[in-house]
Write a structure and sequence with these properties.
This protein has a single domain, classed as Farnesyl Diphosphate Synthase, CATH 1.10.600. Helices cover about 70% and strands about 0% of the residues. The protein has helices spanning about 5-15, 30-45, 50-70, 75-90, 100-105, 105-115, 120-135, 140-175, 180-185, 190-200, 200-210, 225-250, 255-265, 280-300, 305-310, 320-345, 355-360. Helix 4 (about 75-90) packs parallel to helix 8, helix 8 (about 140-175) packs antiparallel against helix 11 and helix 9 packs across helix 13 (about 255-265). About 35% of the residues are buried. The model is unreliable at about 360-365 (pLDDT under 50).
């Protein structure tokens, strides 16, 4: 486990290295928040057993990430992504409800058979997926990148539930010897990222970066090569910024903890007692990997050159308007995505924001 100062120093260094720019919080947009608030209360809320306070927190999280990460997007695109994000969070948090779980089990099956979803929440999910598909028009490849991950997410939630249930059952049977499940994780070095890629919906969010409006048609060939690094950035940056709250909650089945067990079992030498590999070592490793991925994305999208041209610097050739659009939308995504984590109550990073972004001294509590 990292200490608070270790975590904040690690994160501070990463954000400096990748050139993160904290932007001012945007003014209230009634054209976005008004319809989304009404939909949350009148459409999504009644499909769940959640309290008004829980629905409000869900609205804050789902609406906030889309507002911050897609500053160039149209209201239409923002609302669709915000709605799908809200339902995805609700689905994940509803798996312990056996009645809802039984419906979720049948989601993909009903979808493949062309049957409607009987559960109200899942019907909304499917309806918004269809609406998002319509936005992508005739671009079948980009549409697949934007839609399929929302379907795969359902199966990822079910997979995680199976794994968690197995872990609980093994612990209940042998409370003094619950290592077999952890040992299996340790022996599967590719599994942590496999599981994360299934549940992250990252490819869908990445597709949205380069489709700001229904009318915008940036050629896929101009950015397709960055998608592997971009999906990695989306998934792992979230895990790095989630690490603090998950450590507070004592979570043990996430990317960082799973990869820690895997690397520890492989004999990797770390900073722990007896050179044992620790979660903090994994955090540092992931920061290095995200840093390298960000540099590659910036390089392939020519971010530095594009921003120099936007500033009016001379001697910048071979940059066209499409390059500038791509650069603006990527910069808006990565800075907004990070900013949202600091602003969202879910991640508990607000008290650390000044320490990380302004370099204030960290005091252990």
């Amino acid at each position: 486990m990292s200490t608070l100062s270790e975590y904040t120093n690690c994160l501070k260094r990463l954000l400096i290295d990748i050139g993160y720019r904290p932007e001012p919080f945007p003014p209230y947009d009634s054209n976005y928040w008004g319809p989304f608030h009404s939909w949350m209360l009148e459409d999504l809320g009644p499909t769940s057993t959640w309290s008004l306070k829980q629905i409000n927190e869900l609205e804050h999280a789902a609406g906030g990430i889309v507002e911050r990460a897609y500053p160039c997007a149209s209201i239409e695109l923002k609302l669709l992504y915000a709605k799908l994000t809200a339902i995805a969070i609700l689905i994940d948090d509803s798996l312990e409800d056996e009645a809802v779980y039984a419906e979720i089990l049948q989601f993909s099956h009903r979808l493949y058979l062309g049957h409607g979803q009987e559960n109200g929440m899942l019907a909304l999910y499917h309806a918004n997926m269809k609406d998002l598909s319509g936005v992508y028009g005739d671009d079948a490849v980009l549409r697949g990148l934007a839609i399929v991950p929302w379907i795969n997410y359902i199966d990822a939630c079910l997979l995680e539930k199976v794994l968690f249930t197995t872990q609980r059952e093994q612990t209940a049977i042998s409370p003094c010897d619950s290592t077999s499940f952890a040992d299996a994780d340790a022996l599967a070095p590719k599994f942590p990222h496999y599981l994360r890629s299934k549940s992250g919906i990252a490819e869908a969010y990445a597709a949205g970066i380069f489709k700001a409006t229904k009318e915008q048609n940036i050629p896929l060939t101009r950015y397709i090569r960055v998608l592997p690094d971009l999906t990695f950035f989306i998934e792992v940056m979230n895990d790095i910024l989630s690490f603090y709250k998950e450590e507070l909650a004592g979570e043990t089945y996430n990317l960082i903890q799973l990869r820690t067990r895997s690397l520890s079992s492989s004999g990797a030498r770390g900073s722990g007692v007896g050179e044992k590999w620790t979660a903090h070592d994994t955090l540092l490793l992931l920061c290095d990997e995200v840093r390298a991925a960000t540099y590659r994305i910036d390089g392939m999208l020519r971010l530095e050159e594009c921003e120099a041209k936007m500033r009016g610097e001379t001697g910048i050739g071979d940059i066209d308007e499409v390059d500038l659009e791509i650069a603006r939308q990527w910069r808006g995504w990565r800075d907004g995505y990070i900013s949202w984590h600091f602003e969202c109550r879910r991640y508990k990073l607000s008290p650390l924001k000044a320490m990380i972004l302004r370099g204030e001294e960290v005091f252990e509590s």
